[in-house]
Write a structure and sequence with these properties.
The chain is of the alpha+beta class. Helices cover 39% and strands 11% of the residues. The radius of gyration is 27 Å and the shape is globular.
């Protein structure tokens, strides 16, 4: 009876230690990453890491990695590879998380390249969600980027993502402005 109790206690102790060791050694915490691994990383919690720059009173710049409120879809414990950073046209020292780069044609071309789109699921997940926040469906943007379909580009333009260019051969209309007359009280 005593040895059975001792064996159960030992098993419980070993399992408890295994859980604590796995939790402390196996997970990525954004705050523990340096500026060369922070951007485009995902913590063990599933939250995306974000690189921030702070200027100290001395004028010295300090980089800090923080956990954002943005959750990755089906990705945890992930530090993006150098191959994906290069293939997708990204920079390891990118500050914050923003959809602004989607407006740059060169970036979109690299993001939609076969190497990036098919080989870097973490980055595609991030920019899929950033594009959706701007009302753009990333697969359609990439299809239009490849020049495969004019209809998709027209849809993207109509969403406000790309401003339409000038139209030639159309006569301009001139408007005359006349002052408004107050109604008479007769």
């Amino acid at each position: 009876m005593v040895s059975n109790f001792g064996l159960k206690s030992l098993v419980i102790l070993v399992l408890t230690l295994a859980v604590f060791v796995q939790g402390s050694l196996g997970g990525i915490t954004c705050e523990n990453l340096n500026k060369d691994t922070c951007a485009f990383a995902v913590a063990s919690s599933g939250k995306r890491c974000v690189l921030e720059k702070h200027v100290k009173r001395s004028g010295e710049e300090a980089y800090v990695c923080r956990t954002s409120d943005i959750e990755a879809d089906k990705v945890t414990d992930w530090v993006e590879s150098d191959q994906c950073i290069e293939a997708c046209g990204l920079d390891r020292k990118s500050l914050g998380i923003s959809s602004d780069s989607l407006l740059e044609c060169g970036f979109t071309r690299k993001l939609c390249s076969t190497q990036c789109y098919n080989g870097c699921p973490n980055i595609i997940d991030l920019y899929f969600n950033l594009a959706a926040g701007e009302g753009v469906f990333l697969p359609k943007l990439c299809e239009a980027q490849r020049g495969d379909a004019r209809r998709e580009m027209a849809e993207i333009r109509s969403s406000g993502f790309v401003a339409p260019g000038p139209v030639s051969g159309v006569n301009q209309v001139k408007y005359m402005v006349t002052p408004a007359v107050a109604p008479s009280s007769a």
